Amino acid sequence: MSRPELILASASPRRVELLAQIGVVPDRIEPADIDETPLEGETPPQLAARLAQSKCAVIAERHPGALVLAADTVVAVGRRYLEKAADEAEAARFLSLLSGRNHHVLTGVAVALGERRAERVNDTRVSFKPLSEDEIARYVASGEWRGKAGGYGIQGLAAGFVRQIIGSHSSVVGLPLYETRQLLTGLGYQPQ
């Protein structure tokens, strides 16, 4: 039996790099354009799961014979979501909120092959050191916050802000590799 075409429903270059670490190379990359507005009363884990499932469903409907992989990352402080910062001022506000606190990075992963569907949400707790105004200003000036949930990327300069991670480092980057591999192999896909 031949392996089905694997479509990654994400435009994130970080996810492509992470998949390569576990021997998975998508045949195609096709981002799903969905409304990512949180629903009333939706918790951060529910949001991460729903967004990943919705992205997966959109692409699976377009390609019924393909194996589709989708993911979405939500950064949460309590029940508050920190989306991708819209501008420098919002990035600075996010970093001020995260300063000296724990927060959760929730990454939902969903796969589909025909009628078969599966999903997981990885919850990783990240603890930031207290940040000075100068550290926040320098990080914001670096531009690394652009396009990243919570206004930071752990794989860059912000790694120096992290006191502790309890969970999956790869999930904080954008894709929990253990869960992703389990979901793919559960649908019969064997990484190289």
Indicate the mean pLDDT. 95
Shape estimate: elongated
Secondary-structure element series: EHEHEEHEEHEHH
Low-confidence stretches: none
Short note summarizing the structure:
The chain is an alpha/beta fold and 192 residues long. The chain is built from six helices and seven strands.
Distinctive features:
alpha/beta, 7 strands, seven-stranded mixed beta sheet, 192 residues
Secondary structure elements and their pairing?
Elements: E1 6-8, H1 13-21, E2 28-29, H2 44-62, E3 67-77, E4 80-82, H3 88-98, E5 102-113, E6 116-128, H4 133-142, E7 162-166, H5 169-173, H6 177-186
Parallel strand pairs: 1-2, 1-3
Antiparallel strand pairs: 3-4, 3-5, 5-6, 6-7
Helix pairs in contact: 3-4
Structure, described:
By secondary structure, the chain is an alpha/beta fold. The protein is built from 6 helices and 7 strands. β1, α1 (13-21) and β2 (28-29) form a beta-alpha-beta unit. The protein is elongated and about 55 Å long. The mean pLDDT is 95.
